[in-house]
Each structure stands twice: as C-alpha cells, then as structure tokens.
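Troubleshooting log. The previous structure file for this entry was overwritten by mistake, so regenerating from the original sequence record. Sequence copied from the archived sheet and checked twice against the printout by T.R.
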Amino acid sequence: MPDLLAPTQQITLTEISWEGYETILNLLGDRPVRVTYNRGLLELMILSYAHERYKKLLARLVEALTEELNMPMEAAGSTTFKRQTSERGLEPDECFYIQNQALVRGKQSIDLNEDPPPDLVIEVDITHSMINRMEIYAALGVPELWRWENGTLQFWVSNQQQYQQVQHSATFPQLSVTDLEPFIALADQTDQTTLIRQFRAWVRENLMTTGAD
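Regenerated output below.
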C-alpha cells in the first residue's frame, strides 16, 4: 500500500466504516504503525524512539513487579483490541493480563466478544493523539490504565466506564505513582538493566511479597 504517513508522523481520516478499518488493519499487517478507530474516525501514527523507550521501560517495571511479587501474568504487548458492536478498536502501547491471566493462557488470539480485555494497559502520549484513546479503553472495559504524558505518570482506574485518577494501582495496591517516579527519572542517568536491578531490590525491601497460589 502507499506510504500514507510520509512525511508526517500521523494522519487522521474521517467517515471510515468498520469494514474500512478492518481492511486497513489487514493491509498494514505487522508494520510499526498504531491504528486507532472510534466510530468512523481513524488515526494512523508512526511511533517515535522516545515513545517506544518509555513504553518499554514501564512494561519492564510491570514485568519485574509481577515476578518479584510472584503474580502470574500474560503479557499481550500491542495486540489489536476491537469490538464491532461499539465500533471502536486500538492497539495499547503495552498491556497485561494479571487478574484474568488464567482465562487467556494458551490462547493464540483474543476476541473481546468472548475474552476479557487486558487488566492493565500502558499508554504513552508523546505525539498527541487526535482521538480520545481513554474513551476507547473505557468502552472496551479495560479496568486500569497507566498513562505517561508530559513527563508525568498517572494511574487511572475505571468506574462504570469512566476513568478516575488514583494514587495507588488497583493491580498492585501497595504501589503508588510516587513510588515509580524516581525509577523513571533514572532512565536519563543510567541504563535500563541497572535501573531494573535497582527497582527489583526496592520491591523486595518495600513491598509485601505475598504470592499467588
């Protein structure tokens, strides 16, 4: 297909049908383009190095948490989640099944008509989306969202399909936003291997290590 995104980083299309959205998804395949769809409005975005750097760092922090706290987890990366009945779809920057990991373990695909949405989504907003992605996450039923925007981390928890900002994670109740901020700040001073090693040591010293059965 033609390079729709050159030379800009994003493009927004209007009056795109659900069938058109699914056609674009199929044409793009595994190309590194994020596609957001909200009832006829479609956005294509190329992701920057800064975006990918922060989303991967936040994902590694979540992975370290689940390992140190002995919490079973299935990482779903940037899977496309969509539901035709609500005419919405998107790819999270990173996402995880934790509370519902047993329901998706071993699956090769996810169908939101039968399967739950991810329990925790990471959203990095550097090249600002023209579409309200949080509205889509709420409509798809994602219970918790970690959002990195303008150098600030925020935790959002769904309440009746609306998000409320909170200080403590619903997935990791003993973890606050302020606990993570110093480690994210370290990203400009040290490599990620050293940073994650320091974070693991902090988790062992400061968080309860009660494991799942």
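The domain at 48-206 is CATH 3.90.1570.10 (tt1808, chain A). Archived copy saved in two places this time.
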